[in-house]
């Protein structure tokens, strides 16, 4: 009986370890605090790339695991933009388009968003210039970022 119990425990241990979650990938994007990003944007004259997410958003988690873990996507965001990650459900107060509101109210009222994932591009002066509602693969995100960079000079002055 003891041998059977040991075998059962051994087999269950091996089976459960096979289903264990893989270790999380290291974060390659250097996400900044929103308020600090607004200050840095003024000094560096860079666009702020805001990724809006929620803990319950499955496509958001997929993008974290697959899109933002891509070295090229991370490099573009880290060097050409000021990347920020905001929880769309947050009640923290921020300044969006010159108005003090909760992140959630900025998401709905100022940026007119209603789905996740979503992205907001903010000019160095703090005004939003583009909102995007969708999830992207790494390849699609690279294409989007390159398209934004082509219009960067036009948008920087806003």
In brief:
With 158 residues, the chain is of the alpha+beta class. It has six helices and six strands; from the N terminus they run ααβααβββαββα. The protein has helices spanning 2-18, 34-44, 58-67, 71-80, 103-110, 138-156, and strands at 47-53, 81-87, 93-96, 99-102, 118-122, 128-133.
Write the layout of secondary structure elements.
Elements: H1 2-18, H2 34-44, E1 47-53, H3 58-67, H4 71-80, E2 81-87, E3 93-96, E4 99-102, H5 103-110, E5 118-122, E6 128-133, H6 138-156
Parallel strand pairs: 1-2
Antiparallel strand pairs: 1-5, 3-4, 5-6
Q: Please write the string of helix (H) and strand (E) elements.
A: HHEHHEEEHEEH
Low-confidence stretches: 8-12, 15-22
Question: Terminal Cα separation, in Å?
Answer: 77 Å
Count of distinct strands: 6
Q: How would you name the CATH homologous superfamily?
A: Glutaredoxin
Count of spatially separate domains: 1
Counting H and I runs of at least 4 residues, what is the number of helices?
Answer: 6
Q: Could you explain how this protein is built, in words?
A:
By secondary structure, the chain is of the alpha+beta class. It has one domain (27-156): Glutaredoxin (3-Layer(aba) Sandwich), CATH 3.40.30.10. It contains six helices and six strands. The protein has helices at residues 2-18, 34-44, 58-67, 71-80, 103-110, 138-156; strands spanning 47-53, 81-87, 93-96, 99-102, 118-122, 128-133. The strands form two sheets. It has a four-stranded mixed sheet. A two-stranded antiparallel ribbon has the order 3-4. α4 (71-80) runs parallel beside α6 (138-156). The longest helix has 19 residues, at 138-156. The radius of gyration is 20 Å and the shape is globular. Mean pLDDT is 87; it is low at 8-12 and 15-22.
């Amino acid at each position: 009986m003891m041998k059977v119990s040991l075998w059962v425990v051994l087999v269950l241990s091996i089976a459960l370890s096979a289903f264990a979650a893989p270790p999380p990938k290291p974060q390659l994007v250097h996400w900044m605090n929103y308020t600090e990003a607004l200050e840095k944007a003024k000094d560096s004259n860079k666009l702020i790339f805001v990724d809006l997410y929620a803990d319950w958003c499955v496509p958001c988690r997929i993008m974290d695991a697959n899109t933002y873990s891509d070295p090229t996507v991370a490099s573009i965001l880290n060097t050409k933009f000021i990347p920020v990650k905001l929880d769309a459900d947050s009640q923290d107060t921020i300044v969006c388009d010159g108005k003090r509101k909760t992140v959630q109210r900025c998401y709905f009222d100022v940026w007119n968003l209603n789905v996740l994932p979503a992205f907001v591009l903010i000019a160095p002066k703090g005004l939003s210039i583009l909102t995007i509602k969708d999830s992207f693969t790494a390849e699609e995100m690279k294409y989007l970022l390159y398209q934004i960079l082509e219009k960067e000079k036009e948008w920087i002055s806003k």
